[in-house]
Amino acid sequence: MELLDGKMIADKVKQEIAQEVEQIKLNGGKIPNLVAILVGHDGASETYVGHKEKTCAQVGFKSSVLRFEDTITEDELLAEVNKLNQDPDIDGFIVQMPLPKHISDQKVIEAIDPKKDVDGFHPANVGRMVIGLPAYISATPDGIIELFKRYNIQTSGKHCVVLGRSNIVGRPIANLLSHKGNPGDCTVTVCHSRTKDIPSFTRTADILIVALGQAEFVTADMVKEGAVVVDVGITRVKSDKTKSGWKLLGDVKFDEVAPKCSYITPVPGGVGPLTIVSLMKNTLKASKKEVYG
Q1: Which pTM value belongs to this model?
Q2: CA 279 to CA 88: how far, in whole Å?
Q3: Annotated catalytic residue: which of 91, 96, 116, 231?
Q4: Helices (H), 104-159
């Protein structure tokens, strides 16, 4: 059993991006510029945006955060999005979700210029990804693909079972792994909350990707010997064994599943560290106009 070490891979990719940015600087080119919009004071969102700022500094990008109170109206936020769309110095920007209840996430996503949509959520980018055109791919699926590439995991002809059908993870990763090429060429089954007898599918999976948001849902009897298991779930549960009083659990019961696997991601430290790196990769692509020319 080998661990898919997302942190180690993320550090490598960051070094590669930093070297490229250094080269751009030396050649007098434009330094990539990423902006984040943060509405309100959600703790998790503050943490994510903080990580993004730190990573931008590590790779040599310009970055800034536009902060707004959660009293901002939908129209006011859409006007701010439009300003960023029009600003030629800004290569990419994200609007940190979740937004307050009175603002439509979808409306805001659709207001972002697809050329600057480095989160990869705009329908234009999702559509491009689905038909295999160059696109900004959303962070978690891109992180999984990066892990498979770096660990040279063979996917061609393999049966991949995806648990979860969210637009952020399940649907895009199922689509990407069914594309021609490597990683890709998988036969993909998507299971979800209405699927009858999920274990009958997971036991046939050469590659199992779990993104349900249910702590320790996958147990050893659900996994085939030698499978590759990617655990996207992360749930905070109370624990008297840690200093913080909390511990993070994935959707897979790691201790009992890991011995059966050829590869497995830990939680934390698996897919998570690669999500912010994906954002950096997309921003670099945006500054080089690689996707939309």
Answers
A1: 0.94
A2: 19
A3: 96
A4: 105-111, 123-130, 139-150
Catalytic residue status for 119: yes
Provide, rounded to the nearest whole percent, the portion of the chain with pLDDT above 90.
95
State how far the Cα of 196 lies from the Cα of 173, in Å rounded to an integer: 21
d(CA 129, CA 209): 19
Question: Which residue is it, tokens 């590439």?
Answer: 149
Residue 271, number of CB atoms within 10 A of its CB: 31
Statement: residue 174 has pLDDT above 90: yes
Domain boundaries, the chain: 27-125, 139-273
Q: Where are the alpha helices (DSSP H) in the chain?
A: 6-26, 43-59, 74-86, 105-111, 123-130, 139-150, 170-178, 198-202, 254-257, 272-287
Tell me the CATH class for 27-125: alpha beta
- Per-residue pLDDT tens over the stretch 105-135: 999 999 999 999 999 999 999 999 999 999 9
Q: Which of 91, 117, 119, 231 is catalytic?
A: 119
Does 96 participate in catalysis according to the annotation? yes
CATH 3.30.70.990 given to domain 139-273: no
